[in-house]
């Protein structure tokens, strides 16, 4: 009788355990099905984010080009202003010189008028008188010498008038050329300033576009953070009644033997500026660079509770180790395990890649306690 009771109890216990495992597996399957549907939305969002990122990069290049053009235009306008100031100063000097020459010309003309008036009043001989009234060559030469002495002063006055007229004409030409230069510089300056204003407007439009894209990125980033929180909640829910028994000693294995944490500060756990979005936020794990296809090892024995695309994490595996511990392996090129699989420490669970929100091939590795991210380097070290 006692032996029969023991057999019955053993059968009942086995059935209870089987049902518990079956329910747990069914729950995981249901979650996986729901997760697959959500993951498609996440992938679509990721594609949109990638597109926005490309647009942002292109816009930044345009902005840098505009900044360079604006600086060049500002330099050109400054140079034109210097040229304009020099031309205006030159014009003032030329005008002053012209006024002086004009005054001398007027004075010479007045002297000449007085001389002509004196010749007319006094009946002085003219050059034509010498020619037509000379009776011989000797007479002509004698009269000419006399005429030369009389008209020497007149010749000086005439020469002065002619020189001043020449200088006046030359200065007028220079004045006109300077005025034309000033007009050309002024028009060029107006054109350049109009271009400057236009490109300033373009710059402002670009800035507005950037701000709009930044808002979009922030919204998408918020969605990813919600996704991360959802994963944490899922882990807590799945592991709170987990039958997985933790067999470790709080020291986890290194998931990528022979590879170390990235040298940049952004590769470590803690607050950082995100390399893609430029947003300052918590980096919930560590990044270990490696070539695509490098095998990823389970940091501890446990049961796979997630093995699928997880938005920002890309192809992702999460292992429940029991006692509230779980590990996350993100950005995989391909996954080597399935939900519900039992894995052992050091077993290959996937391969390094750059899926999801990634700037290059590496493993994003997290250790979570009751769903909350912890610094992995407090639990493991490179090997």
Outline the secondary-structure elements.
Layout: H1 2-122, H2 127-133, H3 137-240, E1 270-273, E2 280-283, E3 286-289, E4 295-297, E5 302-309, E6 315-322, E7 325-335, E8 342-343, E9 348-352, E10 362-369, E11 372-374
Helix pairs in contact: 1-3, 2-3
Main features:
alpha+beta, 9-stranded antiparallel β-sheet, two-stranded antiparallel ribbon, 3 helices, 61% helix, disordered N terminus
In short:
The chain is of the alpha+beta class.
Explain what the structure shows.
With 383 residues, the chain is an alpha+beta fold. The protein has two domains: 35-241, Helix Hairpins; 244-383, Glucose Permease (Domain IIA). 61% of the residues lie in helices and 16% in strands. The protein has helices at residues 2-122, 127-133, 137-240, and strands at 270-273, 280-283, 286-289, 295-297, 302-309, 315-322, 325-335, 342-343, 348-352, 362-369, 372-374. A hairpin with a 2-residue loop joins strand 10 (362-369) and strand 11. Helix 1 (2-122) runs antiparallel to helix 3 (137-240) and helix 2 packs antiparallel against helix 3 (137-240). It is rod-shaped and about 135 Å long. The relative contact order is 0.10.
């Amino acid at each position: 009788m006692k032996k029969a009771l023991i057999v019955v109890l053993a059968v009942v216990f086995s059935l209870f355990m089987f049902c518990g495992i079956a329910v747990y597996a069914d729950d995981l399957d249901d979650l996986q099905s729901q997760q697959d549907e959500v993951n498609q939305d996440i992938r679509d969002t990721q594609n949109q984010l990638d597109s926005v990122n490309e647009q942002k990069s292109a816009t930044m290049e345009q902005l840098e080009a505009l900044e360079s053009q604006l600086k060049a235009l500002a330099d050109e306008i400054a140079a034109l202003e210097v040229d304009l100031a020099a031309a205006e100063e030159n014009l003032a000097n030329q005008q002053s010189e012209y006024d002086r020459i004009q005054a001398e010309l007027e004075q010479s003309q007045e002297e000449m008028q007085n001389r002509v008036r004196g010749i007319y009043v006094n009946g002085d001989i003219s050059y034509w008188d010498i020619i037509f009234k000379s009776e011989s060559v000797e007479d002509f030469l004698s009269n000419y010498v006399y005429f030369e002495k009389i008209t020497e002063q007149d010749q000086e006055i005439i020469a002065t008038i002619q020189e001043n007229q020449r200088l006046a004409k030359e200065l007028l030409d220079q004045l006109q050329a300077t005025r034309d230069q000033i007009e050309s510089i002024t028009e060029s300056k107006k054109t350049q300033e109009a271009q400057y204003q236009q490109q300033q407007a373009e710059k402002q439009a670009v800035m507005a576009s950037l701000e709009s894209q930044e808002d979009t990125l922030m919204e998408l980033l918020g969605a990813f953070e919600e996704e991360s929180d959802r994963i944490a909640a899922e882990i807590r829910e799945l592991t709170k009644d987990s039958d997985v028994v933790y067999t470790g000693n709080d020291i986890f294995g290194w998931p990528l033997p022979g590879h170390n944490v990235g040298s940049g500060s952004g590769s470590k756990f803690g607050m950082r500026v995100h390399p893609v979005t430029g947003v300052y936020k918590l980096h919930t794990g560590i990044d270990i660079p490696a070539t695509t296809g490098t095998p990823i090892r389970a940091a501890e024995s446990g049961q796979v509770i997630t093995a699928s695309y997880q938005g920002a994490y890309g192809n992702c595996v999460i292992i429940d180790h029991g006692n509230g511990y779980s590990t996350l392996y993100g950005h995989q090129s391909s996954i080597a395990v399935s939900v519900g699989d039992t894995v052992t420490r050091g077993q290959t669970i996937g391969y390094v890649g750059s899926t999801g929100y990634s700037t290059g091939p590496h493993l994003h590795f997290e250790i979570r306690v009751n769903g909350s991210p912890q610094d992995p380097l407090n639990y493991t070290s490179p090997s």
